[in-house]
Amino acid sequence: MNQVNPLHIGGLLLTISIYLCFQLGAVKEGLREAKQEYATSEALAVDLSALKNVYANKKKVQSSLEHILRQPSLREAHLSVNRGDKFIKITSKEMSTRTLNIFMNKILNTSYNITAMKIKKLSERKASLKMEIQW
Amino acid sequence: MFTRFKHTTNVLFVDTISSVIGEYKKGEKVDIVLSPKVYWVKKMSLPVKSVREVKKLLPSIFEDSLPDGNYSYTAYKDKDEYMLFAYEDKKILDLISQKGIAHADIASVHFAQSEFEAVENGLEINEEESIYLKDGLLLVVPTIWLENRYPLEINNIKLSKHTIRLQQFGHIVDKKSLYTVGAVFIALIVILIVEIFVASSKQDRVLESKDALFSKYDLQATMFQNRSTHQKYSTIHQRQTKLREMIALCLDLHLQSSQKIKLIEYKNKVLYVVIDGVTKQNHEKLLAQLDAKNIVYKSALKNSSLKIEVSL
Predict the structure, then answer these.
(1) Predicted structure pTM score
(2) Which overall architecture, per CATH, does domain B10-172 show?
(3) Which pLDDT tens digit goes with each residue over B146-184?
(4) pLDDT tens for each residue of B237-288
């Protein structure tokens, strides 16, 4: 006939409630952190994807450069192109400053990773060019 | 193999004054019959159909006839009438303890009223007092009032089904409050568990979304690797932007007619610009244009050639 003291049951229920409150707090904190982490990851992923698309997309960079190099206005520059797996080197021993201007406008207005460049004035209207672009 | 033993318990009659009638050994279960001195009883005819309805009315029926105390109530139907009882759990339990009976040994508790309903003569409960049935109510009367009386032999009686369950802690908190508080706590616990479950599910969904994000953007396995790659391409982007800005700035320099840009070179993350036709007198004017744009640079003037170096 021994019975449990209701105060003990009350105490137990109170303890369980307090424990669950703490658990809920911890789970909600975890959820908040997970959401924050997701938002950070998403922002990073979008940014990284855009950057890689510009600087690491081999096909896109090659195709875009080939399009520039095929321009009729650059034909007289006699550009020499050395295509590697990770880079492309463009050189011209002598080209008109006008053609150089057209070429550089197209290169600089597009987001290429120019790793080396040398433009040397040969005379009033002539210049030489060396350029390396990587991806 | 599975022999079922008949379980018998001793019956004890417990009164406030007299010693316990019956045989009790500690550790053995006993049925207790309570003396009429420890409860209040009324026999009434009530216009209700069930005992359950009667029980609701009991506090108000006993309201004016009981001294102050913390009472429990019970009732059962006796032919066309109801037997109504009021009793104090704590007082009865204290009495049982005083008599040396362990609470753990109590199998059931009965009122003498329900167990001696058919008694015709007086039954002695001690030298001076007897129990006696009058008008259907069992009373404790002085033994000398009764002509026909016999000693009470408690083990010979067959117990009825009318038992009470003594509330050990009824004096601390009443049942209704206990159930209300218990219900509130249990509801709170259920709500908290549901909340935890919902929050956990949401967290799992966020983590799943994160996995989907990795697949969608073709990210590397760890965020550390991705941050490192992001840092690499961000640096490239910043450097390329700066390179274009610096070339534009150099081409925008206000040069004198004798001054010409001879070389623009970029290697090892450093931009070199060589300008011919610069004299000691006018080179500062030229560099002032870079200073005005807050450009950090190195410069050297040699044989009328000004070499400017800008680290990117």
Answers:
(1) 0.62
(2) 2-Layer Sandwich (3.30)
(3) 888 888 888 778 899 999 988 877 666 677 788 888 899
(4) 999 999 999 999 988 888 888 889 999 999 999 999 999 998 888 888 889 9
The B residues from 69 to 128 touching A (CB cutoff 8 Å) are: 103-107, 109
Q: What is the pLDDT of residue B3?
A: 43
- Domain spans, chain B: 10-172, 180-219, 231-311
Between chain A and chain B, the number of residue pairs with CB atoms below 8 A apart is 143
Inspect the interface and report whether the beta carbons of B199 and A28 lie closer than 8 Å: yes
Cα-Cα end-to-end distance for chain A: 84
Select the residue of B104, B182, B185 nearest A1 (Cβ to Cβ): B104
Query: Could you tell me whether strands B270-276 and B260-267 are parallel, antiparallel, or unpaired per DSSP bridges?
Result: antiparallel
The answer for residues whose C-beta is within 8 angstroms of residue B78's C-beta and 6 or more apart is B43, B117, B136
C-beta separation of A17 from B192 below 8 A: yes
Superfamily classification of domain B231-311: General secretion pathway protein M, EpsM (3.30.1360.100)
Residues 6 or more apart whose Cβ sits within 8 Å of residue B33: B11, B12, B13, B14, B110, B111, B112, B115, B154, B157, B159
Give this complex's ipTM: 0.84
